[in-house]
Amino acid sequence: MTVRTPRLELGKQITPSKVGHLLSKYMHDEDNNYGIRVANKRGEKWIAYGDGMLLNEESEGNIRIAVDAVQASVNQVYDAFLYHEKTVDSSVVTDYIPFVDANEKNNYPMFQVKDGKLLRRADLSNLSDPTTKSNWSGLKTVLEARSYKPRGSAIEEYDDDIDCRSCSQSLHPDLLAEDV
Fold it and tell me: What is the DSSP code string of 30-73?
């Protein structure tokens, strides 16, 4: 998942750049597996999982929103074909694009850029570690990441605040059967 992976900075600031690209993949895979609470300009909120989780139940929200976005785009192309004079409003499609929901608790990123500095989560294995360090080695981090066992995820499979049971929009149908 590339919603927050600083790929460009990792590739440019880590030597050799292949190590930086590998670290990008590790962060991508971590966010892919554990998810990120996201929102879009349409007001939709969900836990986004990456491509490796696409066919899993947890990823139903991703698929639904992706399909809706593609359909909105197809509709715009078709309308442009039918009505040449019609102005296209790109926000009809771009408003589906997710961004990290700053109002929700997420795992702390493996890497982040602050004030131009590339920082690493201090305790790589602790997904809830808010501390960072600026003095770290790319190669040592690769060796650590190859065998780390993440713990302390802030993302839970069935999160009441995200699943929206009360509005009957849960991505997990078995939750709807529970007493609310």
Answer: HHHHH-EEEE-TTS-EEEE--GGGTTSGGGHHHHHHHHHHHHHH
C-alpha distances (whole Å) from 53 to each of 29, 70, 82 are 10, 19, 37
Tokens representing residue 141 in the block: 């981090």
Model's pTM, two decimal places? 0.78
Q: For residue range 37-56, what is the model confidence (pLDDT) as tens digits?
A: 999 999 999 999 988 888 88
Which residues does 101 contact at the CB level (< 8 Å), separation at least 6?
37, 38, 39, 45
How far, in Å, are 58, 112, 127, 146, 178 from residue 122 at the CA level? Answer: 29, 12, 10, 16, 40
Answer for the pair 96, 39: CB distance below 8 angstroms, yes or no.
Answer: no
